[in-house]
Write a structure and sequence with these properties.
12 helices; Aminopeptidase; 4-stranded antiparallel β-sheet; 373 residues; LytR/CpsA/Psr_CW_biosynth; 7-stranded mixed β-sheet; alpha+beta
């Protein structure tokens, strides 16, 4: 959403008029009712003014994925824009967070409700469905779960396919970002002949089973890197073999850093390039499925044109440290701390700036930028 609005609002001069640009950009975006019953009441007047909260859900669809497998939300992010629309805050909810998921009937496989990990809400909402129906019902149950947990009624929502980010990075010619901890890939490597090969056998639940003999995994060492599209997607998927052993918290942070790096590069390289910009608009559009909350995308774009890359703050729930508990029937789950719940109340009440000032260590460091090297 941040990448898309920046593209749509900063590039009018380059291509001869914002009206054409907005038409080109919004025409590529898939529109769909995602929020459903989690949206604000229909009779409520919807306007772009005031503080806004957008629920962003990242899904990581794989080539040749078994359609019978449940689709879980890989990343769950609340994008908070304060009332003055001058900046934005990204708050990631750990996908293993223990929550109460409400009962829900998707018309195919009803869910009776109960405690589970928050990423399961998307899976339970989409059970027995395929295509756009699976996306809309999965998102709706997740949004209802977030609403019950936080008291936040999302103003808009978007599903972002991380596979689509490969296309954006392809248009940019790669993305340069700071890798803040050495990360070993469990998905991509090469054999003794130099041919691509999987370095680890993976269990059905996505965890590592064992190392495959004769295959060397890709390793992203700590420091500045310029990643090609395949490397970028591989890096942001990793959570198992991180040097700091921070697992999902590390992956959360790396995905946030990746999105900010892409946005910074779009601004610095793509907006004034008549050859790159059309491809970027198309790639961004194909990456997102959007519920605009009844507010035209053009209004969203113009209202948030001031949110530049350096005005986006990423915040760590639980301060980026584990607060795990084994729950019968669920397994190891993350428990949101009282301070994390305070953060979510700050998102609801538009007091995030005050929370950040009181908890500076909860801000995720993006690391040095390419301009620092």
């Amino acid at each position: 959403m941040a990448v898309g609005t920046t593209l749509m609002t900063l590039s009018g001069v380059a291509l001869g008029g914002s009206a054409w640009l907005l038409h080109a950009a919004t025409g590529e975006v898939t529109r769909q009712n995602l929020l459903g019953a989690a949206a604000a009441p229909a009779e409520q007047h919807r306007t772009i003014t005031g503080a806004k909260n957008i629920l962003l859900v990242g899904v990581d669809t794989r080539p040749n994925q078994d359609p019978s497998q449940l689709t879980r939300a890989d990343s769950i992010i609340l994008l908070h824009v304060p009332a003055d629309h001058s900046r934005a805050y990204l708050v990631s909810l750990p996908r293993d967070s223990l929550v109460t998921i409400p009962a829900y009937d998707n018309g195919a496989t009803p869910f009776r409700g109960g405690q589970n990990k928050i990423n399961s809400a998307f899976a339970f909402g989409s059970r027995g469905l395929t295509g756009s129906a699976a996306l809309s019902h999965g998102f709706e149950l997740l949004a209802l779960t977030v609403r019950d947990l936080t008291g936040i009624t999302p103003d808009a929502g978007a599903i972002i396919d991380f596979q689509g980010f490969k296309q954006i990075v392809q248009v940019l010619g790669g993305v340069c970002m700071y890798v803040d901890e050495t990360t070993t890939s469990i998905h991509v490597g090469h054999d003794t002949a130099g041919k691509p090969a999987a370095p680890y056998a993976i269990n059905p639940d996505g965890t590592v089973n064992h190392r495959i003999t004769g295959v060397t995994p890709n390793v992203y060492t700590k420091g500045q890197h310029c990643l090609d599209p395949a490397q970028a997607l591989d890096f942001v998927r990793q959570r198992d073999l991180l040097a700091n052993h921070d697992f999902d918290y590390g992956r959360q942070r790396h995905q946030q850093q990746f999105v900010k790096a892409v946005l910074a590069q779009v601004v610095s390289q793509g907006l004034d390039s008549p050859t790159k910009l059309p491809g970027l608009l198309s790639a961004v559009g194909r990456t997102m499925t959007v519920d605009d909350g009844g507010i035209p995308l053009a209004d969203w774009a113009f209202a948030m044109h001031g949110v530049k890359p350096d005005a986006i703050t990423t915040i760590k729930t639980n301060g980026g440290t584990f607060n795990s508990r084994t729950v019968p029937g669920v397994g190891s789950a993350e428990i949101l701390s009282p301070t994390s719940l305070q953060l979510l109340r700050a998102v609801r009440d538009d007091t995030v700036a005050a929370f950040v000032a009181a908890h500076p260590t909860w801000v995720a460091d993006s690391g040095p930028t390419s301009a620092d090297h």
